[in-house]
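Box 3.1. Reading complex inputs
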Amino acid sequence: MRGERQRERLKVVRQRLKKEKISCLVVTKPANVTYTTGFSGGDSWAVITGRAAYLLTDSRYIEQARGQCRLCRIIERRGPMAEAAAKLIGKLKSVQTAAMEKSASLDTFEALKKNVKCRLKSAAGVVESCRRIKDSDEISAIGTAGRIAAEGLKRMRRRLKPGVSENELAGVLDFEIRKLGGRNCFETIVAFGSNASRPHHEPAARRLKKNDCILIDFGVRYKSYCCDLTRCFCLGRPNALYKKAYEAVVKAQAAAIKMVKAGVEIDKVDAAAREVIAGYGLPVYGHGTGHGLGLEVHELPVVSKNIDGALAAGEVITIEPGVYIPGKLGVRIEDDFLVTKSGCRVLSGIAK
Amino acid sequence: MRGERQRERLKVVRQRLKKEKISCLVVTKPANVTYTTGFSGGDSWAVITGRAAYLLTDSRYIEQARGQCRLCRIIERRGPMAEAAAKLIGKLKSVQTAAMEKSASLDTFEALKKNVKCRLKSAAGVVESCRRIKDSDEISAIGTAGRIAAEGLKRMRRRLKPGVSENELAGVLDFEIRKLGGRNCFETIVAFGSNASRPHHEPAARRLKKNDCILIDFGVRYKSYCCDLTRCFCLGRPNALYKKAYEAVVKAQAAAIKMVKAGVEIDKVDAAAREVIAGYGLPVYGHGTGHGLGLEVHELPVVSKNIDGALAAGEVITIEPGVYIPGKLGVRIEDDFLVTKSGCRVLSGIAK
């Protein structure tokens, strides 16, 4: 990450820390470590104070950290992470109370508490809330991930013929994504026929038959950022029920997209999609209508029922209504959008 | 999973619960949910009492859960997980105190605490300790994962020629693994030349040159179980330093393997490998010598310095010493072993 970008992010995080009266935040969630330090490896923590940012890592990652973290002081731990963090915090004169991210595990919290001399409290969603609004580098990375996804899917479709298995097709897609310079950001879902009624179906040995319908839900990570897409199509001619479900989902997604705009209440976006499905007399999906995405495939905001709050410009969200009829079919269409002042911009523009 | 196998596992977990005076365990770690219920999907919890086992899941997974969880009562939650779990626990008359796994996050714990009427405490490593000793189904799954890994690597090596990139080679390996019916259980590491000095190098655009040395660290998941392997080889002739490092690592691994046997203290296995590397006058690796593996790529026991305790028959561990010289080379060799009464049996038998 460029130095100035890193500086801007740390500035926003520090404003938030000041607001929440936190003088020292112990960052343990990998995506938050990446956000605050630029480090994309694993098993590392960040410690952020008003003055400095530290990356605590180990010998496996030290070369990588030196290359990625321009604004951080890098500390190579040799013993347990909690001991290394406690030692560092102990040296920070101005810190009376440290806060650990609430996404940390109970045993991680206890280990640090046991070792640290100052007070230790927990803090929820500090970095996550800063991550909600994306900067231009982040939007650009998500957009590139979306373009890799589009091209990968196009290349995969050439292999679509009767006899291919779900598992093989998922493998082909993943391989094309990698050749294009991306990575999967979650396990690709490929479901043939009635398997698609399980929204998180795991691809297996089932082979494609003539007139089978296909659901593919996949995501690409590019420069640490994720896109998340779902497409449905048929090899041959779908039956009348499938056509109806597909039409309902397309219209439900369009209705929700039409609502998306900075300032709009989130549950209204959700309701717009559900109403269309219900209007078709089809079962309304049990999952949310969408979610934020960025360094994680699922992040803030949640786009679902009973969610307080409104969308803000700079947020990136999915819109993904579906229709599931066990034993018969599953249809879901999912795209990624940048929320703007006047509406939204699609970041995953594939022909459906 | 077969019903009798599931019953045996629940029996072992319940013995442990009784010993620790836990009448109700809330299981949140995915691998522990799989172990106690047979469910291999995500976003689900198990609740285990002396009498019953429950799986709390949502609409996306309900069909899958019905197929996989023979001995569980399956509950489809519609609202937040903590509320659904609290409601269930509230109905269990015999439960005065529930325990949540310590691997759960602080906010997950707080959410349940807020909703549940009984006392809530935390418990460390209950299911993890049961998972240490593998049954024959688990050993067989890890062995199959190992065979898929061996065959996948063999097929990948056909594509090994100057000009191929780290990223492409990783993609080819992953694709072959999938065609063989397995999945990656972590991101494949392919490192050419001096990139191998970073033990967790991320494959990138670097292309293979004549006489380059290659490090590949990868894992296969088969029926939820993992294997974990590292191999190093050269395209052409390695230099004298590389030959020395390779020889040291082979001998270090052999020295550790020779020590492995039920009852042997873990730190002695670790020391055996390190002594060989040090004897060659080479830098001793900063990571552990090995780790347990099963439903997770890293599980108990940890095979490293300063670890109390001994190996037990039925444990499955990696042995993976290495030599890293930044800017010059990285060599690591990793295999998986079943600990037996008289020694060990290799589960990842690839020619090196």
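In summary: Chain B has two domains: 3-131, 136-346.
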